[in-house]
Every structure is written in structure tokens, then in C-alpha cells.
């Protein structure tokens, strides 16, 4: 099993390998299984260090694991952007690690090896205040997504304008259709419908396994046509839309990691290190909320299974506080796309 090679500690715990193999056999996405394996492996290392069998571990041992996660030095140092201390994993990452451990203990309970789960979870308790929601083992922080200011966006565009046609069309589609990184990199040539300016986001490439069809603008369509002509000089074969042009992987599908490196370089060159592959999606959905789109329409466009995920963009847009301004935002979406696709225009922002 590849996961055992990546995290040798898994090989020392047969039940852990058995549990992960079940997820693989059930067809869970490789990235999901990988995330579970990482979280469980880190927990098992703590158990080994504490000299406790994970099957017999209790809440005190889970607490030691949480303390280790929250005190681990950050690889990026102090995060002055969010005013964090630079110590410990983010709240979202800690929650992800604990989900793996909790599910592992659920498995042990189902197998009759334990009677209780040491990893607490939020649950409904009748009679409790505020809707009866009991807090989980680690409080879940609900942070709004980060989006760039108009000045930061213009700085990113100034740098992106000098990128290759492939990178520019990828940025344009990422914003225009609010695509996640994997959805963008997994687009195929037959997912495009140029006649209606729509693209199909296949279920197997989405986070929630929900297929959707989304439109893209005329300006993005022009840039996309230019890229398709350029792509034909690399490969005429149907398949994944975005191809590598490097010597080592020429004409091979562009990987998620390569795209992340492209966006990271653009962000650093623009002096906006917070900008990531997910920022364009956050920005698009926020702009749609500013334009007055209804909650369910934004959720459908974004591919959210629950409108709770969409509410963050409503809050971030300030629409609830400033509805009277929403009518003046119709031009924003078109302006962003035009700036992404126009190779000659100079971004003008008030200084």
C-alpha cells in the first residue's frame, strides 16, 4: 500500500491499514484518503511516543495530540496577515486531522473493539440553549474567506498580463466560473460548449460530487479560442484541456501542483502573498453576492451542496448591511474578466 510507504507508522498498526483500505475500496477520492492517512499517521506517532495502544487510548491521549497540533511551529513563521502567532496548525487543519481520528474510532466501535469514541463532536442536545448545539472537542472557528482589495487585484493583473496564454485563460476561467483548482485542472476539451459559452464541471472532479454547467463571458471566450489554437500546436489529441509545455512533461496534463506554483509565483511577484488558487473563486462568489444574486443561485453556480457554505460570501459582500449599494456592482464582474483577458490594458486604480 503506497500510504504505508509514505507514512511507515501506519504499517505498525494493522487496524489503521485495514480502515484506510476500506476507504480506498469504497472509491473515495485519493486526496481524501491521503488526508485521512496523514491525520491518522500523526496521531499514531503521538500514541507510539506516549507508549499507548491507539485501540485503548482515551480522551487524555487525544488531548495530547491536540496540544501537539496547536503548538507545532509553523513552517511559514509568524503570519502577520491574520495576526496569528506563527505557531500551530490552522483551526481548519486541526479539524481535518481530528476528523480522521474520529472516523478511525468509529470504525473500531463498529468492529466491537471499543465502546466509545474519545474524539468529541458537536451534537444536538435537547434543552440546551442556542439551539442545543454542543461544542466539539476543539471549537470550530468560522472565518470569512480572504479576498483582495481592488489595488491588490490590479497588482495581480499587472503581473498576470505577462503570463502565457494558457495561464491567463486559466486565471480567467477560475474567476469567471468560480472553479476550484481541481475542477480547473481537470477540464477536458469535450467539457466546453463554445456555441453557448458554457462548460461542464464533471461530478468526479468536484469536492461534493455534484456536476454542474456554468457559463463564461464573451471576453474569456475570445481568450479561450486563442488558447485552443495554441494548444493545437502542442497536441491535437482530445483529452485534458490544459497541457504542460515544459521539456520534461511536454504535452502531458498540467498537474495541480504546477498550477499552484504558477499562481504562487504570480502572487509573490505582485506583492500579494495571500493570493492563492482559491482566491479567484472566493472573489467571484463575493462579487455575485454584491451584484444581488439570490442565495440559492450562488449556491448552484458554486456547486455547494448546502447554502450554509454560500452564506459566507453573502456576509463577506456586506450585502446584508448595504443592500442599497448592490445595484451599482453589475459592472464589477465584467470589469474583472476584461482585465484578465485584455493583454494591452493597464489597470487603473485610485492611488
TrEMBL record:
A Pfam family (short name) is Phage_integrase
Every copy of the Core-binding (CB) domain together lies at 14-109
User: Known SUPFAM superfamilies for this protein?
Assistant: DNA breaking-rejoining enzymes (SSF56349)
UniProt keyword terms in alphabetical order: DNA integration, DNA recombination, DNA-binding
Which InterPro entries does the record cross-reference, listed alphabetically?
CB (IPR044068), DNA_brk_join_enz (IPR011010), Integrase-like_cat_sf (IPR013762), Integrase_catalytic (IPR002104), Integrase_recombinase_N (IPR010998), Integrase_SAM-like_N (IPR004107), Tyrosine_recombinase_XerCD (IPR050090)
Query: Where does the Tyr recombinase domain lie?
Result: 143-326
Q: Which PROSITE patterns match?
A: CB, TYR_RECOMBINASE
Question: Which PANTHER family does this UniProt record tie to the protein?
Answer: PHAGE INTEGRASE-RELATED, TYROSINE RECOMBINASE XERC
According to UniProt, the name of this protein is Site-specific integrase
The protein's organism comes out as Actinomadura chokoriensis
Amino acid at each position: 500500500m503506497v500510504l504505508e510507504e509514505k507514512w511507515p507508522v501506519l504499517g505498525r498498526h494493522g487496524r489503521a491499514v485495514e480502515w484506510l483500505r476500506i476507504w480506498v475500496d469504497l472509491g473515495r477520492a485519493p486526496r481524501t484518503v491521503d488526508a485521512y492517512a496523514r491525520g491518522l499517521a500523526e496521531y499514531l506517532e503521538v500514541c507510539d511516543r506516549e507508549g499507548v495502544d491507539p485501540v485503548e487510548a482515551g480522551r487524555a491521549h487525544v488531548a495530547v495530540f491536540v496540544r501537539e497540533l496547536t503548538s507545532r511551529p509553523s513552517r511559514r513563521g509568524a503570519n502577520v496577515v491574520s495576526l496569528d502567532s506563527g505557531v500551530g496548525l490552522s483551526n481548519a487543519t486541526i479539524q481535518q486531522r481530528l476528523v480522521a481520528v474520529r472516523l478511525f474510532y468509529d470504525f473500531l466501535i463498529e468492529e466491537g473493539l471499543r465502546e466509545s469514541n474519545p474524539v468529541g463532536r458537536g451534537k444536538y442536545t435537547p434543552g440546551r440553549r442556542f439551539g442545543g448545539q454542543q461544542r466539539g472537542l476543539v471549537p470550530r472557528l468560522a472565518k470569512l474567506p480572504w479576498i483582495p482589495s481592488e489595488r491588490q487585484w490590479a497588482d495581480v493583473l499587472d503581473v498576470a498580463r505577462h503570463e502565457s496564454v494558457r495561464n491567463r485563460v486559466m486565471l480567467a476561467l477560475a474567476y469567471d466560473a468560480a472553479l476550484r483548482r481541481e475542477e480547473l485542472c481537470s477540464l477536458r476539451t469535450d467539457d466546453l460548449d463554445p456555441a453557448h459559452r458554457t462548460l461542464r464541471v464533471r461530478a468526479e472532479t468536484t469536492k461534493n460530487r455534484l456536476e454542474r454547467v456554468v457559463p463564461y463571458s464573451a471576453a474569456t471566450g475570445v481568450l479561450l479560442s486563442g488558447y485552443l489554437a495554441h494548444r493545437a500546436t502542442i497536441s491535437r489529441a482530445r483529452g485534458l484541456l490544459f497541457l504542460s509545455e515544459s521539456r520534461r512533461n511536454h504535452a502531458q496534463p498540467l498537474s495541480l501542483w504546477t498550477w499552484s506554483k504558477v499562481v504562487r509565483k504570480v502572487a509573490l511577484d505582485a506583492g500579494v502573498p495571500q493570493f492563492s488558487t482559491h482566491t479567484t473563486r472566493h472573489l467571484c462568489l463575493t462579487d455575485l453576492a454584491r451584484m444581488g444574486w439570490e442565495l440559492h443561485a450562488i449556491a448552484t453556480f458554486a456547486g455547494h451542496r448546502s447554502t450554509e457554505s454560500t452564506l459566507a460570501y453573502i456576509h463577506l459582500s456586506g450585502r446584508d448591511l448595504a443592500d442599497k449599494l448592490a445595484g451599482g456592482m453589475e459592472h464589477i464582474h465584467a470589469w474583472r474578466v476584461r482585465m484578465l483577458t485584455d493583454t494591452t490594458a493597464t489597470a487603473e486604480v485610485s492611488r
